[in-house]
Amino acid sequence: MRPTSAPPPSATHPPSPSQRRWSRRARAAGSSAIRDLLAVVADRDVLSLAGGLPATGTLPTDDVVDAVTRVVTRGAGALQYGPTEGEPALRRWIAQHELDGAEPHDVIVTHGSQQALRLLVDALVDPGDTVVVERTSYVGMLQVLTPSGAQLVDVGSDEHGMVTDELELLLASGLRPTLVYLAPTFQNPTGTVLSGERRRHLGRLAAQHGFVVVDDDPYRSLGFEEPPERLRDHVPADLAVTVGSFSKSIAPGLRVGWVHAPEWLTPALVRLKQSVDLHTGSLSQRLVLDLVERPGWCAARAARQRELHSARAAALGASLGRHLGDTARFYEPRGGMFTWVRLDLAGGDTDELLPLAIEHGVAVVPGSAFDPAGRASPDARVCFATLDEADLDEAVVRLSRAVAQLRARRGG
Ligand SMILES: Cc1ncc(COP(=O)(O)O)c(C=O)c1O
After folding, report:
1. 327: which DSSP letter?
2. For residue 103, which phi and psi values (nearest 5 degrees)?
3. Contact 379, 367 (CB under 8 A)
4. Which of helix, strand or coil describes residue 149?
5. Fewer Cβ close by (within 10 Å): the C or N end of the chain?
């Protein structure tokens, strides 16, 4: 068992004079390594494989322009306050199309799925509660959990996702988590998919031990093949939470996500959301609804994204093989936006690699950003969605130079 209460950033960096006036929670919030990094690379001639950004050229700009006119002229609703739970018609659409006919009442529209994660932690987790995460987890959820005072316990994962046998052993030895959080479908950062067998196993464990399972699922529409069965189909209904987003399927700037939760939990989420932002922007919600309701629009967009992303993922894999050979190992992604690469750095790690990589004009995200306790590793998250094939190849050439430099420094 590895209880790894993530060290608050204040433990490693003493607070600056202004931070001393901040609340403990604000100090513990830290800052995302990805955002710090993007801020650096944005001003320089760096090919970034770091962000999780859709390629700008693929955003549905013309369709959004059309939709704005339609939505705004249809009535005042798009520019008015709306219900905290979200626009009723959008909740119905999500329940029907994203959740195979779930009850629309149990769907809340959120300001991106990131807000749903925050609301869930605020609604369910008290300081000292145990939360299980994957040993390699979405950094945005770690940012939510760290200041919550939760005790994080990480469970290993492999190419089939979270190792549920390891979770079973922890439960048998007395672990009592409030919730288990995972992104089982084209995970960020590893790109892996939780196998059907493990989905069923996790569901049985939840039923036996009564913990809530949060399935964070923003990449479902970005599969190169049919998406897997939903985790919620295997988890008792009163313990199953699903979080989704239109950020990847339409555009992240609209900031429209959603959460589907059991009936006992939704009132808490609504109260908390009300205190944060009253409701998600009416204009954004109506834009999303206008787009997704156009006959064939979602399917056509998903097909275009699938074609583009699978070609880029394959190109990245080929470049890694060509320029890094055995120095790089990775799982072939089956969807999503990321390839998780383990580099042979002669004993070094990707925290050490990053400054060299930036010097050579390329950025990746070091594995430590996704580790609940910030442990350095020879892994890196590489985004294949943003750059075209030629830039991906050039980025890998640059990365290989940085890897060679670090290996030489380490005597490898
Ligand atoms: C696994 C996962 N969950 C949630 C989010 C948040 O997405 P958004 O708030 O844009 O819906 C992301 C964003 O990259 C993600 O990768």
Report:
1. G
2. -80, 120
3. yes
4. coil
5. N
- In Å, what is the CA distance from 280 to each residue of 3, 38, 74, 123? 36, 26, 19, 18
Alpha-carbon span 336 to 96, nearest angstrom: 23
Closest to 345 measured CA to CA, from 411, 408, 407:
407
DSSP 248: T
The pLDDT score that the predictor gives to residue 29 is 79
Query: Could you give the CA distance from residue 384 to residue 341 in angstroms, rounded to a whole number?
Result: 12
Given 3-state DSSP classes, what are the helix, strand and coil percentages for the chain, each rounded to the nearest 5? 50, 15, 35
**The one-letter amino acid at 368:** S
Nearest C-alpha to atom 16 of ligand 1 is from which residue? 188
Residue owning tokens 């672990």: 175
Compute, in angstroms, the gap from residue 113 CA to the centroid of ligand 1: 6
| The ligand 1 atom nearest the CA atom of 117 | 4
Which atom of ligand 1 sits closest to the CA of residue 252?
10
Around Cβ 42, how many Cβ atoms within 10 Å?
11
Can you tell me the distance from the alpha carbon of 280 to that of 285, in angstroms, rounded to the nearest whole number?
A: 7
8 A C-beta contact, residue 222 and residue 69: no
For CA atoms 318, 320, 321, 323, the dihedral sign is positive
E-state strands within 7-115: 47-48, 107-110
Dihedral sign for Cα 19, 20, 22, 27, please.
Answer: positive
- Tokens 């070094």: give the residue: 348
CA 113 to ligand 1: nearest atom: 11
pLDDT band per the 50, 70, 90 thresholds, residue 9: very low
Structure-block tokens of residue 399: 């990365």
What is the identity of the amino acid at 360? H
Distance 109 CA to ligand 1 centre (A): 14
Q: Give the CA distances from residue 410 to residues 207, 338, 344, 347, in Å, rounded to whole numbers and listed in that order.
A: 49, 28, 11, 7
Per-residue pLDDT of 29-50, as tens digits, reads: 776 555 676 677 776 789 999 9
Give the bridge partners for 330, in sequence order.
Answer: 341
Could you give the CA distance from residue 32 to residue 190 in angstroms, rounded to a whole number?
A: 18
User: Is 247 a pocket residue for ligand 1 (Cβ < 6 Å)?
Assistant: yes
